[in-house]
Amino acid sequence: MSPPDAQQVPPYVYWTRRRPHVYEALPPPLKWDASFWFYDGDVTLVVQGLAFRLHTTMLANWSEVFESWFIGPCATIPHPHDLGSFDGWPLVALRAVDTAHDLREALLLMYGIMRIESVTKYSVAAALHRVALAYRMPTIVDAVHKLLDHAFPATIHEWDNRPADRVSFDLGKAQAIEAYNIRESLWEEFTESVELPEPVGGPFEDREGAEVGDGLRAVPGARENSALGNP
């Protein structure tokens, strides 16, 4: 069902308002997103001037953050995300750094319109990764990591055996910095999940600050992780 046209109401109340405001119509300059407007939705998410009318149970089922905002007797929408209410339901602003594109891609997955296995574009995988990390969606985070494993092979064997339908960098060089940042985050999560070995005994054992090379000194208490290399 298509969203109704926004009606004219008094000047828009800025999002920094601390007292909840009750809106009888969608306040300008907000506009309904044409892709996600459900007549039986019970929450409106706002990002980049677009309003998405959605279901709290669906959002909470995927996101630990949304669950803490919408579900249960202790559910609280924190300031400055709480814009008040519209049509009797919460009107909620997402973070200023979020984009409508990222939210839309995440909703396609959450509502079962898109399957994670069908994602072949890096721009889509990156969008899912950003939303999933920001709003604590562990299922999507794990799925995207598996999806990106083939895009960032760790060994020569994995490189030589990459599947033909792996995620492609659809925006070319424009995605270089983003790809590097996501690769870094994947590496950090990997190293945090792996218990690194203690330093191997030898001439430097228990010698804090011992010289280990030309001008280099061992860091007290440091673990030996040079074998892991750099991502």
Automatic annotation (TrEMBL):
Organism: Pycnoporus cinnabarinus
Database matches in InterPro entries: BTB/POZ_dom (IPR000210), SKP1/BTB/POZ_sf (IPR011333)
Region Disordered, residue ranges: 197-231
Protein name per Swiss-Prot or TrEMBL: BTB domain-containing protein
Domain named BTB: residues: 41-111
